[in-house]
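User: Modeling request: complex.
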Amino acid sequence: MIETNPNEIVIVKSETSKIGSVDFDNLIFGRVFTDHMFVCDYEDGKWQTPQIMPYQAMTIEPSARVFHYGQAVFEGMKAYKDDDGRIFLFRPDQNFNRINKSAARLAIPEFRKDFFFEGLEKLLKLDSDWIKPGVGNSMYIRPFVIATEPAISASPAMSYRFMIILSPAKAYYNEPVRVLFAEKYSRSADGGVGFAKAAGNYAAQFYPTSLAQKKGFQQIIWTDANTHEYLEEAGTMNIFFRVNDTLITAPNNDRILDGVTRKSVISLAKDLGIECEVRRVSVKEIKAAAIDGSLKEIFGAGTAAVISPVSAFEHAEEVYELEQLDNSYASLFKEKLMNIQHNISEDPHGWRYEVK
Amino acid sequence: MIETNPNEIVIVKSETSKIGSVDFDNLIFGRVFTDHMFVCDYEDGKWQTPQIMPYQAMTIEPSARVFHYGQAVFEGMKAYKDDDGRIFLFRPDQNFNRINKSAARLAIPEFRKDFFFEGLEKLLKLDSDWIKPGVGNSMYIRPFVIATEPAISASPAMSYRFMIILSPAKAYYNEPVRVLFAEKYSRSADGGVGFAKAAGNYAAQFYPTSLAQKKGFQQIIWTDANTHEYLEEAGTMNIFFRVNDTLITAPNNDRILDGVTRKSVISLAKDLGIECEVRRVSVKEIKAAAIDGSLKEIFGAGTAAVISPVSAFEHAEEVYELEQLDNSYASLFKEKLMNIQHNISEDPHGWRYEVK
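Assistant: Request completed. Predicted assembly structure:
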């Protein structure tokens, strides 16, 4: 069934739905995708007519540049449904702006804002049944761009594919995580691509993370590559430290992702009268605070995990356990954020964006 | 036509050949591929039966991890044909070892040596007509591995595809190149993946290189990310400096690729009685040598380009032009290397590997 709409997006609907075969109570993150996907190709110097089509495998040349040179960027977003069946996004302008900032750093042409929003909204409405109401349920949205030109010279491609795929999700991490402060490996360099959601930033973390996991730590808190003295981010999350009642998080720079959840936490802290210092955070200071008892919490903030409390950290072969508080900032921010996201509370900053 | 051979590789030959449509005198690097390709999938914890099949587009899920997290590594090699029609590789063991070193850093399972060599040799023999004799002609060989598992969790994939594709080539750079010494952007961090042929390392260079190109420089010589004071490599080439009659090149470390052409140049220099210092090279020293006239040459060394002379460099908005010498080290090493590669000269180090 093919529809062409006045806004140029061609829609080819799936004849059948897979939704009946999905166990929504036992979703593993990022494995199940909805019935449709959004696809838009860049050819001849411009983004061509976008399509929404049945979710399916695609045909691509082995010489496509993405396979050889990692010319690819992505975003992570979520949609939420309230009890009235209304669908909301959370600060989607931030993700749109960031994917284009990432794209520019990777020499990928910027995507069109009208195509992004129209495509995403039509896609969400078409697969609306897949978005389950209830706090904790969400639709994980993965926009991404890949270089498709079939030529292996090491230079920016002339053709690209922009896609959006949707994966229904429960909370990403359920348990507090144990983390390791990086001492040897690094995530990114000054003057590099750490601030971008560049595909290659992620695979580079897999091996060091696997070593951490063998030692019983789920995540690494990356430190600056030069000295390993300053705590930066967790690779899939930004990171916050609570010392006494003050929050501390690292400033953005060209190594650290400008996280949407991070900046929302900073705003919420201000609303709540919680002091939040955005400054360099040293390993030394956090260890000292852990020893003298002033370190109350560490938590990660990111779209997939929302807020992810840390129960322990390791550095220089010493493990520091953190007591889990009943009235933690982590649970406070998580509740505040999720209530805004799910249209349960007021939204003083205008972060909700209804998909109509 | 399907053949199964005793060494497990399944061969499906192409019914027709594209070779008649190829203009071998006007090849653009990396755009034309031969009639066949080698494919081997990793599933259920092991590399499955490899196949050689007609070169063709492949079907892959949009959620394949390579698209999202850049979990991919590659190699660059060449095959040469002498006037008797014999086919040679150049130090292929180095490439095999390096792709597995790269794979390990990206949490990709190591490939099997028997599959690599049998697959590559059978593929080259099947597409032997595509390898043209004559110095300067070669078959560029691109082995690569991509993460294919259709799931977007940020962790190592459970399934991969190892491929080899072949592209007939002329010399990669024909003219001396003008280069810019990096002052702001960086290629890799200490503790990162710069030493690996990780896909993401390459796309990260495209944007800074495009800025250099707008200023009239084809390549960037990357400097250390911490201080930008030491010259490291050129992204697709290692780099050598000739000061008076001494060669200088940076030592390998976790930021710099362990280049096969680089180490071959170091060996040849020893054979020829040319002093070669493998040590840190500062921007300051090279600028001083350019000013006092002791800087005689700069050249890149890599598989695609073999030896690529540099005619000028820029740093801090100053351009330093280099006189092109008649009897340059660059042309000496290029001739020595190509004569070994094409079976024209003796091969005292046993670098040639005949494909029989």
